[in-house]
Hints:
Structural class of chain B: mainly alpha
Radius of gyration of chain A: 23 Å
Order of helices and strands of chain B: HHHHHHHHH
Number of strands of chain B: 0
Helix content of chain A: over 70%
Largest sheet of chain A: 2 strands, antiparallel
Strand order of the largest sheet of chain A: 1-2
Number of helices of chain B: 9
Shape of chain A: globular
Shape of chain B: extended
Distance between the termini of chain A: 34 Å
Largest sheet of chain B: none
Oligomer: heterodimer
Largest interface: A-B, 74 and 49 residues
Amino acid sequence: MPHTGNLLFLANQSMPVPEDLLNLSLNAKAILPEGFVLLALIGTLLVDLAGERTAKRWSPPLCYAGLGSALLVLSFQWNGIPESAFLGAFIVDNFSIAFRGVVALSTLISLLISWRYADQSGSPIGEYAAILLAATLGAMLLCGSTDLISVFISLETLSVASYLLAGYLKRDAKSSEAALKYLLVGSAAAAVFLYGASLLYGISGSTSLESIGIALQVSPKPLAALALVFILATVAFKIAAVPFHQWTPDVYEGSPTPVVAFLSVGSKAAGFALAVRLLVGCFSVFDVQWKLLFTVLAVLSMTLGNVVALAQTSMKRMLAYSSIGQAGFVMIGLVCGTEEGYAAMILYMAAYLFMNLGAFACIILFSLRTGSDKIADYAGLYQKDPLITLGLSLCLLSLGGIPPMIGFFGKIYLFFAGWADGQYLLVIVGLVTSVVSIYYYISVIKMMVVKEPQEASELVKAYPLIQWNSVGMPTLRFALLTCLFATAIGGVLSNPLFKWANNAVAGTPIFQEALAFASNQGSLG
Amino acid sequence: MTISTSTELICFLILSSVIVSGALGVVLIENIVYSAFLLGGVFMSVAGLYLLLNASFVAAAQVLVYVGAVNVLILFAIMLVNKQEELKPIKGLKIRRFFSGCVCAGLLALLFRVDITTNWATPGPKAIGEIATERIGEHLFTDYLLPFELASVLLLMAMIGAIVLARRDVISIELESKDSIPQNIIKNSTDNVLLDQSSD
């Protein structure tokens, strides 16, 4: 980090000399991937000016090019020396690269499955792609932000774009309701975050997370605890942890399904990145307190999410509750605070990307052909559409944690890390709720596979002929097959993924500091 | 007590009482036009607090943005959709109000507790006064450059989003008239609304 000295100088001295400012290095290449996303955003807006037909023709390739080159640059940045950019506002470490990759990939897959949906619902495509790319930009920058101001602005970019996307089907009253609910609850969460952030600024006199972490070591306890609670509430809102989850089912049900796919993976990944940056990087002194709070959140999320999902009749609502439960599982890794725990969290997030998006691709395909999201309408589907049946079965089994799918290995790694760290309560609750979740996932599969032809639902009896040649269908099939392949094969070939996740932890300064801090405390106690 | 400190104290007391009573009025008064005007008063008083803290730029920005733009926009919105409509009474409104009041009171008690038990480092750092504008500018183009640039993307996207939400849906109307593409996604999702609510 060549300019750290300058950075400290800037933080301590209130009036830097102008010549010094000019010599500071921005290290702007750190956000090159985001630059490509931004270029794709501007490109889609420009082609959209030429009319809807041109937008339909050129928006998709532009988005693929932007997100593809972003992913490529991210892979080149992998395992580089962790360095901060923009004078301490952003950091490139393996953790941020991994999560930015997850966000970009989730956007790419969500876009692949959304063209047909947008076409069939008659929504303009250009603006849709642009807003989704803006949400991606915010989420990607959030993963690497190391300054309260950039954290807040990127969080708002992600949130405002998500509100707009949730309400994108204007003629659907449910969609508008989802957008309004999301907007109101989200703004309240943003206000709470600002309150917590202002307390942190008051404690430390700086907006840099690193300086705040140092200042918290000597700060008055009650004040810092209050800031912790406020920040934690925002994080819990973003990852939809119980009891901050009330918006999730309504928003997931009302929003356009491809948007839900993005919200459930990309937005959630960004929320976890925010949690790691703030809690692991900043509140390491309050280790015991935030871990206790997170344990409570995780237990509640796993229990409520998986139990309420049992009673759902709508596929989207069921997946909403299941995603609340899944967030609870991921939190186990964060609470452990061991190397395995962090690696398991990253691994599970990557696994969740493929299995959840695969499930959403199947749901979208079914709703495009029949117009329904109800679980009962899936009855007897295997005779009419084997691909959806196979895909949905694989993805749901993987979400439930059945071997040999990728979700099984992710979950076993999480539970193993939790058990090794002595989080017995979390692991036992996780195991029990996993069994509950397998019950409702399998009941969907049973609905599709076991029913006799005469028991099939009306919609399945009148199932249209399977055609792949209309606009956006080939990309949907491609995304579906990719997710299926990753879900089915990823479990068998999970060793590279394990290595990848361990590398992500090894190449991340905040994790290493937290681990060193924990081992110091262990040797003292 | 010198004249300046006592004036400051009196100004502070007046401003904060206006803020507290105005904010309570915004929440409690049923007529939203009154609420909107009271909100303007609250914003102005907050600007006054900034002035007391010797932050004139922030005070000016507060007046320009919140009173000049946000509050006027709220008033416009109220005036434009000022429909007289009897709203259906919400079930259990009193209990709901009681519970939300309890939550708010609990939060207030928590804040008070923290406020009293904390050893505040008073007086805080000295206000930099007139050069604040320069300092903000410096920060915007050095360590806050990334959020500053990102804010432009945020604003661009918010503008596009507002236009998308507000404009008439030309394409979908065309499609409906042609009747070439099935609209079943939307129709069905509004149909099964009632069924799904019961399962929550």
